[in-house]
Amino acid sequence: MSSREAATADEAGAVGAVGTERLTRRQLLTETWLVLGVSLGASAIWSALSLVRKLTARVALNQQTTAMNSSVTPDRPWLDLTYQLVGIVLALVPVFLALHLLRRSRPDAHHEIGADLRRPGQDLLRGVLLAAAVGIPGLALYAGARALGLNTNVAAANLAAQWWTVPVLVLAAAQNAVLEEVVMVGYLFTRWRQAGWSVPLVIGLSALIRGSYHLYQGFGGFVGNIAMGLLFGWVYTRTRRVGPLVVAHTLLDVVAFVGYALLRDHVSWL
């Protein structure tokens, strides 16, 4: 074997070692906190600060509005579209990071967590049922929280009216779903279980973090998303697939975003 061939063989061996590397419990937990720190964990911190700012304002919480999916340059539609698409793509980077880290221990990790298209019909059916189970109670909780002064008015879509408004809102909904379900469920459940944490602890902590990065909406959004996280976590432990969760989350956000955009000028309570 030549020296060049030997070097190539050594490199291949090194790659193989990475593909099957075993991390210590401390390394697993450190990795998860770092992933959260550059993604949804950071969102939870900013969200908590946003709630504090709203609570300390001179206006009642239910008299304040939380604007989502807003235009950046409404007077320049082409630039506004660029901003929206770039924001969607960059928000997915933590997803690829999480999958990359999982694949270092198991090359087929995306199949292991069900982040694939192997069972489209089953994922779609389960996702629709989950969306129905979450959507109606969630709407009632939002209305009740606002009536009690515990939630802001959530303006879910504030893009300028353009030909691309609805497609961008659908893409934003799908981005939210993929980011939250792959990171908060597929990735964290895998790593925390590998670290030796119990299933109830994993489900509960993941749901608590999910609720925390929705605190910017108020206490209704916090409680509602904890409940959603508990249900989604339980479903995942039974199916081992994030596919249905992504479908359900996408449908919920599409209805919220597109529905608001289409109905806000016609329904007084939105």
SSE topology sketch:
Elements: H1 3-19, H2 25-37, H3 40-55, E1 65-67, H4 77-91, H5 93-105, H6 109-112, H7 120-147, E2 153-155, H8 165-194, H9 199-212, H10 219-239, H11 243-263
Parallel strand pairs: 1-2
Helix pairs in contact: 2-8, 3-9, 4-8, 5-8, 7-10, 7-11, 8-9, 8-11, 9-10
**Number of helical segments with 4 or more residues:** 11
Rg computed from alpha carbons, rounded to a whole number of angstroms? 21 Å
What's the count of strands?
Answer: 2
Low-confidence stretches: 2-20
Distance between the termini: 73 Å
Q: Roughly what percent helix? A: over 70%
Mean of all residue-level pLDDT scores: 92
> How large is the share of residues in beta strands?
under 5%
Class by helix and strand content? mainly alpha
Major β-sheet strand ordering:
1-2
SSE string, helices as H and strands as E = HHHEHHHHEHHHH
Shape: globular
Describe the largest sheet: 2 strands, parallel
Q: What do you see in this structure?
A:
There is one protein chain. With 270 residues, the chain is mostly helical. It contains eleven helices and two strands. Helix 2 (25-37) packs antiparallel against helix 8 (165-194) and helix 5 packs parallel to helix 8. The longest helix has 30 residues, at 165-194. It is globular, with a radius of gyration of 21 Å. It starts with a helix and ends in a 7-residue tail after the last helix. Residues 2-20 have low confidence and may be disordered.
